[in-house]
Amino acid sequence: MRDDLLVQLQEWHEEDEFQEIVDAIQAIPVEERDYELVNHLGRALNNLERYDEAVEQFLTVAKEGTGDPLWHYRIGLAYYYLEQYAHALQAFERADELDPEDEDTLEFLGWIRSKMEEESVDESVSPDPSVSETSTVPFSVSHLEPTGFWNDSAEAVDQYVLAPPTDGQIESMEEQLVFKLPTSYINMMKLHNGGVPHYRYYPVSQAEAAKKIRVEVKGILGIGREKAHSLGGQLGSRYIIEQGGYPEIGVVLCECPSDSEIVMLDYRESGNAGEPEVVHVDKNESYKITWLAPNFETFIQGLVNEENQPANLQGAL
């Protein structure tokens, strides 16, 4: 039955019947869709120019796609047409590492680098006088647009948002936590130190999903001690881990609406000074650890809203 479906999906692809592919796969319960079916769905969504939906689908199988050049190529293509060139570059460079000298990959790499060079020239020629010095911290995507990514309501600012951290404060926090914070997280916090994102949902990998299809975050902890809801605050990472009995695998990154759930930076594979993965931990499910993303940047980029629309990261990090 499944083999027949795969043959039919390929036939529809060759006949440009992309909506047929989407309808057929979406009729299958989410928990029954495997890596191959999700990739068929993502490819069809790309061909229908529904790139935001394609990214969300590809992210649900990110763990399985780590060593697959085709997965990196396809999600890179979606990022390219969403004009998220830094993420597209990262994806195509990885695809090139896994499948060197693929002509299509090299062609996209050329286009992406050209686009990024154009953006760099435009920014140097026409700087935005409203952007402060702290908004020019190097990162792998463009400059911050706070209103696009962050929900700076009075409550969110009061609970989460701190002044940009100094290098000394960052070093002190790392010593307290005994973990080196990801560079991408540090750079983001230098632009906007903690807060509540507009986009608060992250799709759970197909390989990891059981009852939960998405994880919802309440707020991202910033670097500091002044606010209770910050890494070193009274209700920060160490407090949450110790009071909740959570596993000692790293640093609490996000609070969730449920007091029994958190999102953590997981250093088990990388070591305390390496690049941590991002996981969800559910206390009510016997502290079940669910893998979300290979790194902080991928996690932030993959956040979506309730209508399945990914965050506009043209400047969100």
Mean pLDDT: 85
Radius of gyration: 20 Å
Question: How do the helices and strands follow one another from N- to C-terminus?
Answer: HHHHHHHHHHHHEEEHEEEEH
Strand content: 5-15%
Structural class: alpha+beta
Q: Uncertain regions: pLDDT < 50 for 5+ in a row?
A: 125-147, 312-317
Question: How many DSSP-defined strands?
Answer: 7
- Major sheet details: 5 strands, antiparallel
Number of helical segments? 14
Distance between the termini: 44 Å
Q: Write down the overall geometry.
A: globular
Q: Strand order, biggest sheet?
A: 3-4-5-6-7
Helix content: 40-55%
Question: What layout of secondary structure does this protein have?
Answer:
Layout: H1 2-14, H2 18-26, H3 35-47, H4 51-59, H5 62-65, H6 69-81, H7 85-98, H8 103-125, H9 146-149, H10 154-160, H11 167-177, H12 183-191, E1 201-203, E2 214-216, E3 219-220, H13 237-244, E4 250-255, E5 261-266, E6 277-282, E7 288-293, H14 296-301
Antiparallel strand pairs: 1-2, 3-4, 4-5, 5-6, 6-7
Helix pairs in contact: 2-3, 3-4, 3-6, 4-6, 6-7, 7-8
Structure description:
The chain has 317 residues and is an alpha+beta fold. It has helices at residues 2-14, 18-26, 35-47, 51-59, 62-65, 69-81, 85-98, 103-125, 146-149, 154-160, 167-177, 183-191, 237-244, 296-301; strands at 201-203, 214-216, 219-220, 250-255, 261-266, 277-282, 288-293. The radius of gyration is 20 Å and the shape is globular. The N and C termini lie far apart (44 Å). The model is unreliable at 125-147 and 312-317 (pLDDT under 50).
